[in-house]
């Protein structure tokens, strides 16, 4: 690759260097960062966790090594409210995180967006966006249709092969038969077939339908004699048909490739077929799209005196049977591009410019790899460029005249699979039993079988929930090489990098791509820095104006475990900045004051922190959701079935469910209380704040001292050294949550000093649900097995957590709250003894089965992962993705089977 690697790294590390000082090889957008989040799913119920891996790289080389150290990830609802935010610590551009869901989340579409502070320099083009669906684990808010996942598998000249999943039990719960008779009517012509349940218990409908069919009707009758009928068009939905000449225009006397795309009212591509006729009603070409409505055809020697029209021979709901092509220009220039024998051939043709000076520039992701000047000879010229000159990805071709005025543009994709990571993955078996140990050996090699050190992720899921879409979902390859470089949504992006798929990426670039390619900005300014660590900055001014500046030593102290103060000498009035060590949690309160700490000095100055620029929230769920609703139904239905199994299991073994319904009379419900109820359950003891105030004496020195003397029958307060500590049960852990915010381990000593006047309610939750989840937030380094415990829930008047409650109106301490890194959470996988695999009284129906976002292969390119299967049998998929520090990418998936243990 002919690019100065070190120069671009210097430009990233020292953005104050102007692009003009280097060369004209870089566009402004070439200095942005790409952000990729890999998720475990697209659909969730509220008892699940959203797991994700984050990769941040520079856009030109895809190298994560020299990139930001902080990633901001927001979970946003359809009302455009940020309901949870995470700061992800990145090491060499890579990190991981999660969102724990609970019953407070309403059903619907949610947006997950991710960005770096540095990427704010480039507008919204490099902000990662992902739409997901979240549904209740208990409600039946999704109307489960008896016929789901209707899809076109393939088609021939005369037929369309349709598949669907049929669930007669949604019509009649008593239907347990293993066979189902389906009556099919195509435009009134009836046929009858009998289908059986597959291994997952679903009736699999598979049928050839005539392409000419306008009306298809399916009918079945259940065991209880309940009849169900539905009808639709196999090619339903009105569509718009659009045409895109290869380099922008049709020009008289010249031939041109023309891309086309048929778009339905749902924004998705629709299959079409037809012919091109001229105004003399002569057929000059024909066309047929792929399943996504895209394709191309050739027009020879077009004539500006004629009008060209597309006539649909198969027009499924098209608004017009005739659609006009763009007008033919009398004079102009065209440019066509194609790959031939490892060379890129760019043919320039003009009907009026015979010896014009032209300049061709070929770039990829904002970096120019080729620029050459030439003269047309008799109106034409052919540029021949070696394929190896470019990296893999979208190549932007721009043709200008000698004055730099644009003449034609074209995008073309450069496939370079030898530049990718050669991923090898071998299982120790092809077939397992429930709770068996799985051993997966991974190798990361280059095209010459030499080892590569790579960062690898491994995701294992139930294949039944992904069925026919596993090869269509976004992957690390499709995102970095395609989706991240084009504006808008790409249907089934993974299909373009799936060997068995027939989609042509050139059809995509001819239609959707040529007006939506990024990296066109030539100039810009760097207002935001590339963050590597947590930082606090602001301004300090004296309350009384002075003529001269004074030097002051300023101190910042965080309420983290170390409690080490930071100091910095500043000029007043002036600005200050503190670089902090890595701090983890949710938010942290900090104190900023003069180093002397005297009350007089505190009163002399006004201190204000800098606020980060907030990004506007753009929520367009129609452009983001590409999954068929039937797939959503399948995932939600499976999650709910698993939830029911868990509840039944825990009720039969422990006399209670994981999520009890909560009904409380005479109790004022607030949003904070509702959230606590949903997460952890009903309080067993409630002490009103007014009662606590009534029992407060002159010698009381905080909440715990009052509780210890006046409410000893409801809560045990122990003395540990100089501190008081609350304990509900002996030998069990007691955790504290204030206003819904967990109190972390190093913050516990502050709880005793809460003012009784500030407390609204003191509540005790014995045997809470989801205790493990809270425990891992308070003690992030702890691993299973987790202890039993109870929860103290305190609600305050300020409703801002522990440090919000500790503040008083008379407090002169400059207390501020800052965001810190999100605590990491490991995906828990049990370890079973094969000799006693079913002795445990714990039901194991993990979904996903396994998730490991950061596996590092060694110097030999090897890594081994081990995990245990759950109590779920069936087929499983392992998704593996990898990236090296130099930006090489790899993606692979394999499958295996788990058999039910008959013991």
TrEMBL record:
This is MG2 domain-containing protein. It comes from the Bacteria.
């Amino acid at each position: 690759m002919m690019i100065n690697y070190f120069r671009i790294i210097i430009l990233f590390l020292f953005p104050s260097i102007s692009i003009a000082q280097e060369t004209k090889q870089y566009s402004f957008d070439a200095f942005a960062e790409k952000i990729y989040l890999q998720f475990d799913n697209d659909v969730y119920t509220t008892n699940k966790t959203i797991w994700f891996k984050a990769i941040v790289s520079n856009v030109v080389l895809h190298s994560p090594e020299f990139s930001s150290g902080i990633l901001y990830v927001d979970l946003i609802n359809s009302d455009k409210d940020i309901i949870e935010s995470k700061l992800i610590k990145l090491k060499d551009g890579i990190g991981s995180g999660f969102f724990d869901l609970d019953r407070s989340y309403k059903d619907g579409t949610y947006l997950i967006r991710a960005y770096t502070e540095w990427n704010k320099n480039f507008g919204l083009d490099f902000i990662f966006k992902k739409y997901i669906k979240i549904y209740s684990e208990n409600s039946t808010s999704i109307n489960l249709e008896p016929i789901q996942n209707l899809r076109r598998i393939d088609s021939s000249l005369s037929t369309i092969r349709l598949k669907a999943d049929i669930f007669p039990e949604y019509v009649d719960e008593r239907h347990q038969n293993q066979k189902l008779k389906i009556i099919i009517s195509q435009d009134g012509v009836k046929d009858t077939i009998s289908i059986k349940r597959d291994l997952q218990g679903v009736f699999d409908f598979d049928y050839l339908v005539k392409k000419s069919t306008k009306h298809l009707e399916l009918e079945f009758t259940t065991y209880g004699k309940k009849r169900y009928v539905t009808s639709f068009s196999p090619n339903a939905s009105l569509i718009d048909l659009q045409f895109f000449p290869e380099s922008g225009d049709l020009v008289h006397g010249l031939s041109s490739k023309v891309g086309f795309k048929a778009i339905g009212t749902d924004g998705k591509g629709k299959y079409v077929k037809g012919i091109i006729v001229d105004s003399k009603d002569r057929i000059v070409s024909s066309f047929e799209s792929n399943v996504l409505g895209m394709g191309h055809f050739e027009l020879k020697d077009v004539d500006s005196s004629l009008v060209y029209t597309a006539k649909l021979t198969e027009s499924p709901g098209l608004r017009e049977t005739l659609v006009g092509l763009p007008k033919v220009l009398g004079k102009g220039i065209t440019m066509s591009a194609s790959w031939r024998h490892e060379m890129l051939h760019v043919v320039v043709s003009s009907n009026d410019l015979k010896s014009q000076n032209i300049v061709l520039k070929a770039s990829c992701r904002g970096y120019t790899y080729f620029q050459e000047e030439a003269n047309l000879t008799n109106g034409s010229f052919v540029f021949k460029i070696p394929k190896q000159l470019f990296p893999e990805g979208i190549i932007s071709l721009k043709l200008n005249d000698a004055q730099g005025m644009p003449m034609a543009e074209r995008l073309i994709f450069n496939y370079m699979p030898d530049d990718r990571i050669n991923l090898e993955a071998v299982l120790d078996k092809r077939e397992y039993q429930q709770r068996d140990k799985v051993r997966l050996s991974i190798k990361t090699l280059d095209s010459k079988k030499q080892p590569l050190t790579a960062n690898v992720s491994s995701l294992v899921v139930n294949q039944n929930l992904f069925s026919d879409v596993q090869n269509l979902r976004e992957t690390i390859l499709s995102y970095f090489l395609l989706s991240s470089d084009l504006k808008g949504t790409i249907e089934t992006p993974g299909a373009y990098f799936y060997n068995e798929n027939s989609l042509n990426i050139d059809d995509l670039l001819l239609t959707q791509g040529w007006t939506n390619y990024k990296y066109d900005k030539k100039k810009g300014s760097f207002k935001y820095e590339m963050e590597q660590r947590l930082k606090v900055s602001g301004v300090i001014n004296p309350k009384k104006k002075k003529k001269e500046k004074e030097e002051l030593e300023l101190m910042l102290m965080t309420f983290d475990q170390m409690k080490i103060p930071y100091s910095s000498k500043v000029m007043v009035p002036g600005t200050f900045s503190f670089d902090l060590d890595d701090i983890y949690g949710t938010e942290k309160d900090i104190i900023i004051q003069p180093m002397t700490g005297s009350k007089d000095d505190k009163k002399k100055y006004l201190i204000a922190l800098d606020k980060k620029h907030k990004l506007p929230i753009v929520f367009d769920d129609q452009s983001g959701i590409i999954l068929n609703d039937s797939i959503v139904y399948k995932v939600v239905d499976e999650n709910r079935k698993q939830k029911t199994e868990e509840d039944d299991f825990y009720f039969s073994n422990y006399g209670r469910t994981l999520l009890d319904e909560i009904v409380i009379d005479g109790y004022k419900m607030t949003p904070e209380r509702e959230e606590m109820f949903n997460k952890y359950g009903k309080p067993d003891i409630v002490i009103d704040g007014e009662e606590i105030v009534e029992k407060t004496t002159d010698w009381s020195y905080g909440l715990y001292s009052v509780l210890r003397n006046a409410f000893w029958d409801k809560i045990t307060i122990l003395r540990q050294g100089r501190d008081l500590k609350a304990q509900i049960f002996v030998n069990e852990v007691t955790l504290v949550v204030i206003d819904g915010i967990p109190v972390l381990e190093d913050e516990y000593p502050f709880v005793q000093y809460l003012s009784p006047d500030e407390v609204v309610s003191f509540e005790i939750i014995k045997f809470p649900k989801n205790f493990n989840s809270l425990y891992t937030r308070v003690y992030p380094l702890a691993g299973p097995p987790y202890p039993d415990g109870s929860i103290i829930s305190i609600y305050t008047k300020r409703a801002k957590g522990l440090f919000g409650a500790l503040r008083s109106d008379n407090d002169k301490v400059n207390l501020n709250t800052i965001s810190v890194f999100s605590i990491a959470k490991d995906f828990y996988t049990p370890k079973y003894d094969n000799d006693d695999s079913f002795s445990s009284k714990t039901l194991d129906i993990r979904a996903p089965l396994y998730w490991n976002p950061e596996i590092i292969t060694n110097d030999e390119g090897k890594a081994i992962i081990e995990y245990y299967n759950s109590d779920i049998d069936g087929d499983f998929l392992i998704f593996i993705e990898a990236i090296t520090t130099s930006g090489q990418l790899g993606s692979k998936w394999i499958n295996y089977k788990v058999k039910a243990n008959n013991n």
